[in-house]
Amino acid sequence: VDRQFWQPAGRSALTVNAPAASAAENPGGPDERRSASSRAAREGDVGALRPTSVRARLQSVLSLQASALLRGDEPGFLAPADPGNAALMGDLRRRFGVLRALAVTGWSETLDGDPTPVDGGWQASVHIGYCFVVADCHPVPVEVDTRWLDGGESPIMVEFGSSGAAGLGPRPWEVSELTVAVGPRTIVAAPPGYADRVPDLLRAAENAAAVDDRYARWAPPPGRYVVYLAGPDEWGHWYGVHQAEWVAGFAMPITDQDTEIVLNGQRLVGSQVEDTLRHEFAHVVTLAGVHRDYTHQWWFVEGIAEYVRMAGRPLRDYELLATARRYVRAGHDTELSGLAEPPAAISTEDASGRYGVAFLTVRRLAERYGEDRMLRFFDEVVRRGVPPDQASTSDFGADWGEVARDCARYARRNLS
To answer: What global pTM score does this model have?
Structure first.
């Protein structure tokens, strides 16, 4: 069966209107105070407040909300929101449940500058930093927009947004109900339609992590690999990424240190899940901390991920051999000079062929020079940007042109 494909990836916002509870509905209670404050806000009273003063009040509320999440206090997490805003309250309850299921261990909410007066209230950008499972991780950042009305003693939240395109959003936990499982090395999550697949997904992820951890040569492996299984409504929406038809999974770098994995649940079944995770986790560990553009070394980035996927397995077990053979027999060369990233409109067959040739190229380097020297060559060429001609001389003691031609011959031999 021809495999669908994987690749590393190089965003919408929740908007909630804010109906205020009326005084008649809540006479004399706290909701009456909020409603009166909302009316005052619409009438312009907050316009006289200084942004710096409002900022301090908002930050106090946000800090209390963050602390409530970390201690598992749902009422405290919901406390800033207008209780008459059913949509916002429901969304915050969902977020609280998902984040707690993801074993959130770090969570901060920090205003990014002074709030801006808008529509009788305030708009404020909030910087969130989060960690899952691992308490001492470097927080992953995400920016969201919020809106508030003046509530007298405490501001009233009427909107809590999700991250947009510039922030690689929305993140899955911002917009989706998720079933979550946490293992010793991985966290996996899926929307309700795929909830029954979560136990098998966790087993596959843990098996893949045991292989990929061995290739974390340049930095420690992540505290947990994070994996989301997307359904048809989530695929192409999470992270704002629109993938080609032939893509079955991708690795999304969200910081220099953090990469999250998304699998296309419509395309992956059975053993394909673990194989795909081996490939994607390889991107996590081999590209950790890389700041440079490695687009021109596509063959090496994908080839090494396929190499790790096939670690410990004989070449005859590589399921793309037949597809890659047809690719070569159709007249495509195995020379690296013609092995570029597949365009989005390419067929699955041709994409498979390119991945197969990239894999055989990397496998030949490891067979001829040993895995350690191949990985050192990868470090220089992909991670540090050393020209292949220079790196080949220092790592292999051979001219890169001769090495590349040998790899092309090896690929042709195995695909003829």
So the answer is: 0.86
- Give φ, ψ of 347 to 5 degrees: -75, 160
- Report d(CA 224, CA 134) in Å as an integer: 8
For residue range 38-97, what is the model confidence (pLDDT) as tens digits?
333 333 344 445 666 889 999 999 999 999 999 999 999 999 999 999 999 999 999 999
Residue (of 119, 120, 149, 151) closest to 32 by Cα position: 151
- DSSP lists the bridge partners of residue 8 as 251
Residue with the larger pLDDT of the pair 15 and 230: 230
| Angle at CA of residue 307, ends 255 and 216, nearest 5° | 40
- Tokens, residue 22: 């009326």
Strand ranges, E, within 217-301: 225-230, 247-253, 259-264
Q: Among positive and negative, which fits the CA dihedral 146, 227, 75, 141?
A: negative
Q: Cα(48)–Cα(60) distance, rounded to whole angstroms?
A: 20
Closest CA to 160 of 69, 76, 91: 91
141 vs 143: CA distance, rounded Å: 7
Handedness of CA 45, 49, 55, 61 (dihedral sign): negative
Question: In residues, how long is the chain?
Answer: 416
